[in-house]
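Recall that a protein's primary structure is simply its ordered list of amino acids. Everything else, from secondary elements to tertiary packing, is in principle encoded there. The following example makes that idea concrete.
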Amino acid sequence: MAPDWALGDGKGYQQKLLIPGTKKRKLFGVLEKPNLPPSAPNVTYKLFMYGKAGSGKTWTMNRLAGQDVPTSHVETLGIQCSNVFWPMKIGNRLILFRLEIWDAGEASVKRYNHVLPACREGVDAVLMCFSMTDREGWLDLPRMMTTVTQPSDRAAIVAVATRCNQLANCEVTDVDLSNFEKMHNIPVLKLGLASQDLDGSDDLTQMAPFLNFLCKRLWQRDQELLSVK
């Protein structure tokens, strides 16, 4: 990402993601997109949320989309999709990223044979979700990675740690996360409570680093694939 862009011109473009007069992000329809300059190219990526039931997949998807998060766990039925737009400047070019996020409930994945293949088809990135309060789920993460990804996918893999603010109940340490990153060469991103529950900062400001990282990683993946070809 261009240096200091996120703190300068980038703020103006990010405002186009909001409902006018509010700090709440707009939910764009199928044929809609943010009002950015026509010269800005659009790139689309498919992301698949994966993890055990209760790991925070749907919660993470709603945070990425800037929508209200569920207050209690309800198992996702079938497949749920959400589109997230994010403007970002790479080099000297303004690019509008469109992230198609797919979320499938664990029970549906196990019950219906077509669910997992549908989510994996054409996937560009897999977000492996786990809860910092669930040691068993954390230890099962390497096995789950081999279940959901194949070398032929060439998908970028990112681990997402949820419930990071529940310090009293944490069963996974920062040392665990650091060792995992070194062993598997997979970045771990942390997500805690929604912004209104923390320091009063708006959702867009809090989620910008997360979305910037994802878009940059997807762009780097494309460059790596092009260099291989």
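The first strand starts at residue 42 and ends at 50. Residues 195-200 have pLDDT under 50 and may be disordered.
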